[in-house]
Amino acid sequence: MKNIKINWRKVLLTILIFFASSVVQVVGLNAFLIPNNVFSGGFNGIAQLLSLFSQNFFHVSMPTGTFIMIFNIPVGIVGWKMIGGKFTILSFANSLFVSAVQIIAPTQALNYESAVSSLIWWLINWCFDRISHEIWFFNRWHGYCRDGCSKADRKIDWCADERD
After folding, report:
1. Rounded Cα distance, 25 and 22, in Å
2. CA–CA distance from 142 to each of 17, 111, 134, 136 (Å)?
């Protein structure tokens, strides 16, 4: 049996970024965008529109997270079939986790001005995006993957092109 070496630092960092990104997304949706009828782009924005549509026209309150989950299931399946690997699994798990937490978490406006809410959401999102990219680049170029990554990991993960 092959001895598998687990890089616990990498696992913990992945889990930390996973949960932090989920919290940022849920707070942004439930505290800034949804209460002020500010619509996000992509599937989240379409989910917000459908949630508002179902509430106003059918008088059925369906949380935005339900629609986000519905939209991301086929994307996850197609991504798995076309790309496969750890990235697809983590992306799909993140979208399902965000959807579930978004359904459970209360929608409470922290600011009632649409323009200010948009700006705050953009700033929070931008800051988190920069932090996560800095962590990724720091770990990639400062030896994070040099010791514990297999050749397969280097092809699909943070270690790509490190030693190939």
Report:
1. 5
2. 18, 41, 12, 10
pTM for the model: 0.72
d(CA 73, CA 70): 6
Look at residue 136 and give its three-state secondary structure.
helix
Residue by residue, DSSP assigns 46-98 as HHHHHHHHHHHHS-----HHHHHHHHHHHHHHHHHHHT-HHHHHHHHHHHHHH
List CB contacts of 60: < 8 A, sequence separation 6 or more.
54
Query: pLDDT for 37-79, tens place per residue?
Result: 899 888 989 999 999 999 999 999 999 999 999 999 998 888 8
